[in-house]
Amino acid sequence: MYKQLVGFCAALMMAAVFSLPARGDLLVYEGFDYPHGTRLYGLEGGFGWGAAWASSNDGVVAANAAALSYTDAFGVSLPVEGLGLSIGRTYRSGERYLENPIEEPGVYWISFLIKPSYTLVEGQTSTIFVELRSGTTVRMQIGKVSANPYYGLRVGSTAAYSEVDGEEKIEDVFPTQFLVVRYEIGTSTDDGQIHLFINPNLGPANRPALEEADAVLPNFDSTRMAFNQVKVTVISGGSPTSVGRGYVDELRIGQSYADVTVPGPAATMLLIK
What we know:
The chain is mainly beta. The chain contains two helices and 14 strands. The model is unreliable at 2-23 and 264-273 (pLDDT under 50).
C-alpha cells in the first residue's frame, strides 16, 4: 500500500510539470519523428547517434502514420515525439551507429515501445526485436526474439522469456508493450545480469526491484557486452512464409531508470490520460 501511495503521489507530481528538460544521463534518444511514409535510410533524428540510419532493405522501413503510446498503472502516459517506426515483410532491418560506444563498466538502461502487427497461420513464425551490436557482433536481442511467442531476452544461444505473450491480441489488436531493460557491463566473466521489465510504472520513484523483473539472464560474461550499434529487425518464416510487420517507437538509452522512463529532450508536458 505504501509503495502504491508513493507511486501515485509521484505520478501527480510529474503530471504538474509543464516543462521537462532532457536528463543529463540520457545518452541516446530516437523518437522516429520523421514525415509519414519516408524511408528510414539516411535519416538523422534524435541524439546520441554517430551516423544516419542505414538499411540493407531500403524502402521497406518507414515512419508509420501514428506513434505508439503507453500509460502505466497510475494513469501516467509516456510522452512521444512525432510518428513511429514501421518495419516488416520477410526479413527487414534498420541499423544505426552510436556517437559514443557504450563500453564503460556500469549499469545501463534501455527502453522502447514495441507492437507486432501480423496474422499467423499454423506453421508460420514472426519475430520483432531491438538488437545491440558491436559492429557485426550481436550482443543482445530484446523483444519477440524467437518462434517462442513470449517477449524476452537473448544473449548468444541463451534466452529468457517473460509470461507476456507477443502473439495474443486484445479485441483483435496487438497491444503496445513498453519494454525496459537493465543491462550490465562489468569486469567479470560470470557476474552479468540482464533484467527485462514489461509495462512498469514510470518515473524515478517507481523503479521496480530486480526481483520484479519479467525475465532475467544471469551469470553471463559481462566483459563482452559493450556495443556501438542499435538494430531493429523483423524476421518472418515458416511454411508458408509469413509476412511479419511490427512497430517500434521512443528508443532511449541512459544510465538510470529515470532517464528511460521520462520524456525525451523535446517533450514539453507529461500528460495523464
